[in-house]
Design a protein that fits this description.
Keywords: Membrane, Transmembrane, Transmembrane helix
Largest sheet: 4 strands, antiparallel
Order of helices and strands: HHEEEE
Strand content: 15-25%
Number of strands: 4
Protein name: Transmembrane protein
Shape: rod-shaped
Structural class: alpha+beta
Organism: Shinella yambaruensis
Radius of gyration: 38 Å
Strand order of the largest sheet: 1-2-3-4
Helix content: 25-40%
Distance between the termini: 105 Å
Number of helices: 2
């Protein structure tokens, strides 16, 4: 019975064709493992580069128009003075500016653009046509 166990534990030499296949598979495994290691190192290098490139500076946010600085201790307060007899139909805001669209007392349609940072009406647009 011990003789059978010895036969199972001993490695028998492979025939030449199988030995060539084994060598090719080992070579393929080493090459693909090396490529994976190289790519892993490239990803780590990119992560380290991105972290060090920021240097703690916040990234700039693209904005149109003037940037509105909001104080941390109190909200910004502003008053938009619209002309007498102006009935507001719609209001829209974007980038620190508010657009008031409406009709004047004489029936003329107008739009007023109020800039919060400047604290005043920056544009008055008369609307003609349909």
């Amino acid at each position: 019975m011990s003789n059978i166990e010895n036969d199972d534990q001993e490695d028998k030499p492979l025939d030449p064709v199988m030995e060539n296949v084994r060598r090719k598979m080992m070579r393929l495994q080493l090459v693909s493992g090396g490529i994976m290691l190289l790519m892993f190192m490239a990803v780590l290098a990119a992560i380290v580069y991105k972290i060090n490139a920021r240097d703690g500076k916040p990234e700039a946010v693209a904005s149109s128009g003037s940037a509105l600085a909001v104080p941390s201790d109190a909200p910004v307060k502003a008053t938009a003075t619209l002309p007498d007899g102006f009935a507001v139909s719609a209001v829209s805001n974007s980038g620190g500016q508010i657009l008031f669209y409406g009709v004047m007392a004489d029936g003329a349609r107008k739009a007023f653009l109020f800039d919060i940072a400047a604290g005043r009406i920056v544009a008055e647009v008369a609307i003609a046509g349909n």
